[in-house]
Amino acid sequence: MESQEKDFRIEMLRSYRALRRLTRDVISAHEIDRLRAIVTAADAEGFARKSDRFGFPAFLRGLMTAVALSAEFTVDKNMILAVLLSCLVPVSHPALDSVDSDVKRMMTGLEKVQSLYSQHSAMANENFRNLMLTFAEDIRVIIIMIVDRLALMRAINHHPDEEGVKEVAREGVYLYAQLAHRLGLYKIKGELEDMSLKYTNRDMYSRIARKLNETKRHRDAYMKSFIAPVKAALEAHGLKFDIKGRTKSIYSIWNKMVKQQTDVNGIYDLFAIRIILDVEPVRERAECWLAFSVITDMFQPNPARMKDWLSVPKSNGYESLHITVLGPEDKWVEVQIRSRRMDEIAETGLAAHWKYKGIKSENELDMWMNHVRDILEDAESGPTELMRNMKMDLYNKEVFVFTPRGDLYKLPLGSTILDFAFNIHSSLGCICTGGRVNGKNRKINHKLHSGDTVEIITSASQSPKLDWLSFVVTSKARSKIRQALKEKENRDAELAKEMVARRFKNRKIEIEEGIFMRMIKKLGFKTVTEFYSAVASNDLDVNDLVVEYEAVQKKEEAVSERVSAEEFTMQQVADPTRDSSADVLVIGDNVKGMNYRFSKCCNPIYGDDVFGFVSSEGVIKIHRRDCPNAPNIMDRYPYRVIPTRWSGRCGNEFVANISVVGTDDIGIVTNISSIINKQQGASLRNISINSNDGLFHGFLVVGVENTSILRQLISKISAVKGVKDVQRGN
What we know:
alpha+beta; 6-stranded mixed beta sheet; 20 strands
């Protein structure tokens, strides 16, 4: 223990001297004296002697981070002071009363981010990075966190806590290395990745390192031996360009070994060359292919490794020609050929390098990080000066919430406890009565904030209420609440339907469906379910319904007596347009004076197998043979049914309904509309779409001349990619 404390004192002194050497021009002696006073106060209260899990005293850890920050990033006084002070005392400590507000703001951000580390199970969650960005508020806090992790990983090589070292290494790759890459801190990103591999798979790291154990002079000489003739040949063809070479990092090589399932000897592109052409957009492709031809004439290419993202760019916009050629000493070298515009897109635009490598990220984050990276690279007055007043509001439209187990969820800003419950599971949301937020009981409509830990409280007697829709904000919660309310409404309606049927049966009244539907319409209800819901809620008295039904029935019977079905049928038989050899009604556009209508319940069109039905109003209604109402009509009113056929030709346009089910993709709707518009003898009259759980259900109303055209339409729509089912509706 004494030996370790001695080593810490030596390292602390060494780090302090290094920091003073790096910061002498920006941190004055007066500020050093003030810092010493705070260190003394912190040491007296025990803050400075606090150690992390690896045993490093708090102030030593801060010194290591400050040195790395000054050496690897920039010498910024406020950032360095924030690092040193945050490891000594809380931001609320009285000793910091005279400290600059900018330093305190960074310290506050560091405290918030550090508080997240108590949620260990969430750190591997993609949302953890987003929540960390939200809590940091200042981009400089994120840079400090990245550099702090770099300093820690440098210090824990061969530390006896092997599991702790591996945990830090894994976190360094999936969190800090990606953030460093987004910020353009490529050197730090590469070192974090290499150290991570070293600590998690030391044997593999050493094996690859031995393979690459060539001196820098040798590697530079190899690159020059490859680049020199290529450069001369390209210049001889009048091309203007930049050319640069690099050796892939150990982590990058290992990553390729894993993806390609091969040994280090099987990795082709240990060396890589990039040629960036200065050319007008109109000649980009021509000059890229010219450079390709020049290089493949000089070196043997590997056709299997040729990648043409010039003719067909990647979906993210990436354009480039990749070839792998056999260079000097029989070493495979990857050559990337692209224009200056393509390179800018690949590095800072839609196909930014982290997306090109397959790392998932959000557009808003990428665009914002690109902006910060431009500041880091191009600011004349120093990058930290421009970032000083930059507030990170990337996720001001979202909140990130923990479960008691540490799982992390992302929700829209303004989400409530009920939104969170439905986000976890719909069954949990339906029985939610409230929650405990950070240990305190809250109501169901309590709005959540980033970093909250929420435990859902439930009750088996709870059920969704209509007023829930007034305060939930997530589409999932709204959809599930509406679904639950609809299911309850349907259940109540079924019970009410049984009650009505029993009451009519007790009164010895046989319900005729047509009369019953007209009674419902007369009472002002648009749907049957709405009608039965009113019965279930006691808004309608069943006894009153019986009286109303009998009144409608008597009225229709009186009308029916004035126009008998037999008389009407005999009138039509005598019509000259009828087939004289059989008692058949003929319909079509060349038939005049016939009093018939096409039934809306099945929408028959020319070519359908149809029959006529004499209604109580004295009008013949034409139904399809497969109409849902046909069995009831044939069974109860056979004397009103008239055999019917179409005339020889018909040029009218008929209305037909088509039901389509498929993958929820706006492209499908566009393709279906295009098919209908291109179909001769057809037109699109109306379309409505319902979406749920990644599927859409479309209802199309089309105008067609006959069943043949309708069948063609259904066949073509069925062939559209993503369409799962197409049916003709009634």
